[in-house]
Fold this sequence. Notes:
Keywords: Chaperone, Cytoplasm. This protein has helices spanning 7-47, 69-112, and strands spanning 56-60, 63-67. The chain is mainly α. It has a two-stranded antiparallel ribbon with strand order 1-2.
Amino acid sequence: xxxxxxxxxxxxxxxxxxxxxxxxxxxxxxxxxxxxxxxxxxxxxxxxxxxxxxxxxxxxxxxxxxxxxxxxxxxxxxxxxxxxxxxxxxxxxxxxxxxxxxxxxxxxxxxxxxxxxxxxxxxxxxxxxxx
Length: 131
């Protein structure tokens, strides 16, 4: 950054960088939650193909422990519900961070008097996405 920026602009740039980091952390958490949700839903779907008298096991740390069909189903349903709520929360957080970022970016542009000319990059940063 240029050394001749006003202190307010410097502060807003730092806030933008912090928001960018937060956006990346939320995106990672969201991706993990989506992956875990898909895995739990697949396991729950697979239970439909299993006879409820079949011996089943659940993993507890490094061990496999015998469990009942109903217990496994209840556990998976709870996990799916919990992950859906977590995913919804992360999506809301992602939207909030994006709104804060855009608002802060506008404030910075107003402060610098530049209407979007060469302003800071969005949460993706330069070269984000693409190929």
